[in-house]
Write a structure and sequence with these properties.
alpha+beta, two-stranded antiparallel sheet, two-stranded antiparallel ribbon, 4 strands
């Protein structure tokens, strides 16, 4: 059995449980940079918004 840690980003939209991660990176900043192309957004004060919430207007 092996164990590994990797950073994950959770959506801060109201009632949203979406999350994303990237195994090949070491920091949450790198996950945000990679997932920007997938539609994830980072708002002021560090709030992360998934593509579904962004399209729904939860900004």
């Amino acid at each position: 059995m092996t164990v590994d840690n990797f950073p994950a980003i959770n959506c801060d939209g109201p009632g949203c449980t979406n999350a994303t991660h990237a195994v090949q990176v070491r920091t949450a900043t790198e996950v945000r940079r990679l997932r920007r192309a997938d539609g994830w957004r980072t708002r002021p004060k560090g709030r992360d918004i998934c593509p579904d919430c962004w399209k729904a207007g939860h900004r």
